[in-house]
Amino acid sequence: MTDTSAVSALLDRIQAPEGSGRDIPDAATREIIGRAPVQTVADLDDAIARAKAAQPAWEALGHAKRSELLLAAADAIDANAEALAQLLSREQGKPLNGPNARFELGACSAWLRTNATTVLEPEVLVDDESLHAELVYKPAGVVGAIGPWNWPLMITIWQIGPSLRMGNTVVAKPSEYTPLSVLAMLAVMNEVLPADVLIGISGDREVGARIASHPDIDKIMFTGSTATGRKIIESSAGNLARLTLELGGNDAGIVLPGTDPSAIAEDLFWGAFINTGQTCAAMKRLYVHDSLYDEVVDALAGIAANVPIGNGLDENNVLGPLQNKQQFDIVSRLVEDAKARGARIVTGGEAAPELGELFYRPTIVADIDNDAALVQEEQFGPALPIIRYSDVDEAFALANAVDVGLGASVWSSDPEAAREAATRMQSGTVWINSHGGLHPMVPFGGVKSSGYGLEFGVAGLKSVAVPQVVSGPGRKA
Predict the structure, then answer these.
(1) Partners of 251 in the beta sheet?
(2) Catalytic residue among 104, 108, 176, 280
(3) Can you list the domains of the chain with their CATH numbers?
(4) Of these residues, 246, 336, 377, 394, which one is catalytic?
(5) 378-431, pLDDT tens digit by residue?
(6) CA dihedral in degrees (236, 224, 31, 328; nearest 10)?
(7) Segment 143-199, tens digit of pLDDT
């Protein structure tokens, strides 16, 4: 049951006064759920100045005290998790259950606790009679964190958790589509953090562009489209801010000969349809060997045709709407193009207006050419093209032919064959018999136009820090 009073209390803390701000609709019903503050470049400049002023004292607290405060912030998220999940479900559209809103809140506190407790020791480079040299890591300064709308809370934590842990202060800008849930989570965290260590800024693209070019931003973390990532690179050239960019993907999965379709069907489905397909590292195209093709298609179609879809606050649903009209139109266009090319729509292939304006039925597309737009472009929605292949070498060539490389997967009943096949994929991560699973201690990042820089674990802490070599006399003989 929705606890409207708890959600209202969160909104009262962060939304713009009545008569101002920008209305934010419920993704499923399109009813207005709150008013996002519309802050300006001047507001951003002030926020960055306050974060810069707060940074030395935050760094001086030391790792142990910062870890203690981050663990307290994780406790605060857990204490408000249900209200945050309900606000997230309404604003983003993802259901409460399944790998969705409540899952996302659990990941927020889990990642934050891992950030708080992961140890980054100095690295001894040389230690002999002539020289002792160590590599240490110091905070970069002020981090500008620019988040997306698909996993707005979890990805924001991926950005701010390690940054705060290493002694940086953070100015975080949520997506214009999903600002309320992010600002609410930041308000909850700021109950226990010192003033101005973590500041949320809610504004338009002009504000985001200013973050990228601001002379007092020392590190930028961005998750979003490749096109926007390129603009951030250009904007950051003037101040040489360090960058971590997690950009678009078009993840391929390859089902190898001899695999049991019934054993992998459920994991294949969720690898593609998690968060209604609106996940950077979701499987966007699937290559299946001739010998298994019909069985895999039928198995996935059976799941897609029966998965509960609807309003996210309904406890029974596990798929929701597209978050915004722009993304809905992209999915519709790509599926219509596939139809026009003669591809077979096995299930779905159309909107579901009886559920709401932005609902699209889970769609399985078979017998589709590899050069179809639905295969070559990132659909970022609930439509999976399945491409038939007969030669394994050709399948890898097709999978690797795109200009992005975030994630990929290989599926096989033979563990040795799967591991050998995984090395042939051109992507930052390759999963075996699963797709999209992440762990807070396992580095994650893309290649090609999917960006650069690593997040998570020790590598993630290093990415929000500045390396420094300390070199001095060695041991006396």
Answers:
(1) 283
(2) 280
(3) 4-247+450-469 (3.40.605.10), 251-432 (3.40.309.10)
(4) 246
(5) 999 999 999 999 999 999 999 999 999 999 999 999 999 999 999 999 999 999
(6) 130
(7) 999 999 999 999 999 999 999 999 999 999 999 999 999 999 999 999 999 999 999
Contact 322, 328 (CB under 8 A): yes
Query: How far, in Å, CA of 172 to CA of 96, rounded?
Result: 25
| Number of neighbours of residue 468 by Cβ within 10 angstroms | 11
**Of 260, 271, 269, nearest to 409 (Cα)?**
271
Pair of tokens at residue 84: 């945050």
Residue type (1 letter), 193? L
Could you tell me if 14 and 180 are in contact, meaning their C-beta atoms sit under 8 angstroms apart? yes
Torsion of CA 461, 462, 468, 470, to 10 degrees: 70
Quick one: 473 exposed, middle or buried, by C-beta within 10 A (0-12, 13-18, 19+)? exposed
Mapped onto helix, strand or coil, the DSSP state of residue 271 is helix
280 is catalytic: yes
Block residue for tokens 């591991």: 419
- As a whole number of angstroms, the distance between CA 168 and CA 217 comes to 11
Q: What angle do CA 72, 202, 216 make, to 5 degrees?
A: 80
Question: Beta-strand (E) ranges in 9-122?
Answer: 22-25, 32-36
Gap between the Cα atoms of 472 and 336, Å rounded: 66
| Contact call for residues 288 and 295 (beta carbons, < 8 A) | no
Alpha-carbon gap, residue 392 to 216, rounded angstroms: 51
User: Is the distance from CB of 275 to CB of 99 less than 8 angstroms?
Assistant: yes
Residue recorded with tokens 């997040």: 455
pTM across the whole model: 0.96
